[in-house]
Amino acid sequence: MVEGEDRLEKARRFILELLDKDCLKLKRSIGAGLYLFNLLKGSLEPSYLELLKEFDHLPFEKRKAVLKELERRLSEPVQRVVVDFSKVEKKPLSAFFKPVEELRSLGEKEKKALKSFGIEDLYSALWFVPQRYEDRRLLGAIKTAKGGQKLALRLKVLQTGFDPKEKYPAWVECEDGTGKLFLRFKYKDQRALYRFRKGQEVIAYGRLREYRGEKYMVHPEFLRKEEAGKILPFYYIRTEGELRSVSARKRHELLRETLSKLSELAKYMPEYMPESLLKKRNLPNIGESLYLVHKPLDVDEDALNSFSTPFQKRLVYEDLFLFQLVLQVIRSQIRNLPAVSLKNPEVWVEEFKKSLPFQLTPAQERVIGEVLQDVKASTPMSRLLQGDVGSGKTVVAMAVAFAFAKEGYQSALMVPTEILAQQHYESFKRFLEPLGIRVGLLTGSVKGSLRKSLLSHARRGNLQVLLGTHALIQEGVEFNRLAFVVIDEQHRFGVLQRKLLLEKGGGFYPHCLVMSATPIPRTLALSLYGDLDLSVIDQMPKGRKPVITRLVFEPEFEKVMKAVKEELSKGNKVYVIYPLIEESEKLQLKSAVQEHARWTKLLPERKVLLLHGKLREEEKREVMEKFKREGDVLVSTTVVEVGVDVPDATLMVVESAHRFGLSQLHQLRGRVGRSDLQSYCYLVVPEELKNDREALKRLKVLVRSNDGFEIAEEDMRLRGPGELLGESQSGYFGFWVANLARAQDRAFLQMAREDAVELLKEDPHLERYTDLKSLLLRRYQKRMDLSYMA
Questions:
Q1: DSSP 410
Q2: Closest among 786, 782, 773 to 322, alpha carbons compared
Q3: Is 510 helix (H, G, I), strand (E, B) or coil?
Q4: Strands 465-468 and 410-414
Q5: Which of 251-255, 488-492, 577-581, 582-586 has the weakest average pLDDT?
């Protein structure tokens, strides 16, 4: 027995002596608390040690209760890592790619459970990590517990009471031998308290609150004995699939038991990361990390839930490191591929510029210069073009497409929606067809003979520019000499779709320009799009007036109506934006469908149209065309967020504006102010928001600034970049554990980039790290072309 366990046993025997013979020894003892403190420090949780510091000054009954709790704690089987991971004989990494069906340690029900969560093999099961944890160990005591702390307490019921005038009418007074605690409930009927009896023992788990010296919990969770005394992991639980009829609690239990069983196999996993990197970043090995993430030991709940324990950091870092390796591999791979090099692109761009009815901004000129340098080389361009809403990114793409067309090559532009495709098509046609360039549009709703004709012209090279949605990457779409690809709004497309479009070059790899109006801060953009070079348009076209933004509370709606009527009387158009399509009782937000009816009544003499995401693409396009042509007011959901261009729309009203992220509101606001007319944006919020300082502070950023990059930085500071990058950022970038909303993970992203670049310099084909290479191919081969490594 090790020395630590000796001391624990010694302490336990001493406590039993103190409690023996009706606590005779306890009544006579002096300094028992100090003695126990010295025996147990370093072996027990801080909350117990705090109690022992106070022990000798406590009343007799409380000392007795503390000793009973301590004895119970010391009698519990102590959770320890019983395995020294470094001494276990490792299995080949390939053994961890065994399909779920072949895992003999699991029963059919457990296999079904894993499959319903999209888990295919043992490796992905071990990486299916908990989203959060609850520390249900009985470590605390009322006396030492602090307000705001979440903890489990073993309590004895003293009495119950009911006062209908109180905020929480029902209450249960309890004690644990160290102090008193009230459990408070919003029950309207005191019969709900009948389940509590004087002297009854309960285990309550919840957040402890303190008010005027009284400690209490509101609606705590009551735990069964087997649920207490451990740190409980909680996983992301899907509601669909074979387990949808099983309660969430049962699903959690099943998944917890299954993954707990499998985590025992983690100790056999070989280390595949370079040892030098783990030392440099001070990270534990993979087996230990995957074991502890499912079965954490004596760890603080806050550390677990902020993913800042060493074993969680290891998994986050690895997640980001693999992603960075992939980006760097793709970058190297692309550099070795052949591409068309343009001979005189500057001449053609000058010709295009002369035909424009406006002057390009210096920022547009600079970016065109950067792109032309790339396309004169015989290696493919991979460039990300960031520019604020309305900064003129499309004209840059148009100028370059014109240069390619003049030298006999084709260009393709892929956008996320049919509305946007139609709009770009009209712009390209307006500016390029007078210069002799043939432009086509291919979307899901282009059918029959028109589709056949388009595909035939693209294949024969008669169409020099083809615009469209994801229909461009479908089978049967072929080009004659595709040399330039523009992808608008990168975050709407998976990396795989980008790869499919680029593969249509036939014989050579097209130059690629990715355009995004989502203003991701430079450092983050460089790390997330590490396979791309970065260009930024940081100026607005001449004559554009900044949109004036105002924050309005719902009772002041008359101000909004006055502004709407004023703009309509000038012959301008108005957007009214709502967050939902249909009424949601849960959030009590106004829905576009219901509010369309209200706006029609408010403005009976005006044409009020409705646009939302549940309409078919064809219907959406018809609504937009009608709005442009003859509509006055468009009531819409966020469908209008991306790229819709109606120059005479000068006012936007955003209802329930507090429900949107800042960057999303900025994108929406970009739908007005697209001409030299003064435009306005009214952010309407409920009156109760007057008391929410954080929400108001956030929205006032938009009132103060029209700079998308400043807003993005502020949004990231206040909320993290999750919303900025779109909800599915983790899935989109292929992350399993990393979450860029955490500052720690963003710091790791930068480190992972540096380490990936360094490793590939030393070993471009990862010949010394065969397991790492096979893992990389396994995780990313389907989503990205890694043939260079295979």
A1: E
A2: 773
A3: coil
A4: parallel
A5: 582-586
Q: Which residues are 507's β-sheet partners?
A: none
Alpha-carbon gap, residue 669 to 677, rounded angstroms:
14
Distance CA 729, CA 322 (A): 16
The β-bridge partners of 512 are 382, 485
pTM over 0.85: no
If DSSP codes are grouped into helix, strand and coil, which group holds residue 523? helix
Using alpha carbons only, how large is the chain's radius of gyration in Å?
32
Mean pLDDT within 760-766: 92
Q: Are 414 and 493 in contact (CB under 8 A)?
A: yes
pLDDT at 585 (0 to 100): 41
Tokens read off for 257:
């038991």
| Contacts of 211 by beta carbon, 8 Å cutoff, 6+ apart | none
| Burial status of residue 562 (CB atoms within 10 A of its CB: 0-12, 13-18, 19 or more) | exposed
Q: Is a pLDDT exceeding 60 seen at residue 588?
A: no
pLDDT at 292: 94
Cα separation, 779 vs 120, in Å, equals 12
Sheet architecture: strand order including 439-442 = 439-442, 465-468, 410-414, 482-488, 511-516, 382-387, 533-537
pLDDT at position 589 is 47
Residue with tokens 């004087």: 198
Contact between 776 and 322 under an 8 Å Cβ cutoff? The reply is: yes
- 103-138 burial, b for 16+ CB within 10 Å, e for fewer? beebeeebbebbbbbebebbbbbbbbbbeebbbbbb
Query: Are residues 638 and 579 in contact, defined by beta-carbon separation less than 8 angstroms?
Result: yes
3-state secondary structure of 590: coil
Report pLDDT for 228.
Answer: 82
Longest dimension (CA), the chain: 105
In 3D space, the residue among 107, 386, 116, 382 whose CA is nearest the CA of residue 244 turns out to be 116
Which helix (H) or strand (E) segment holds residue 133: the answer is strand 132-135
Q: Which stretches does DSSP call E strand in 141-213?
A: 150-162, 170-175, 180-185, 201-211
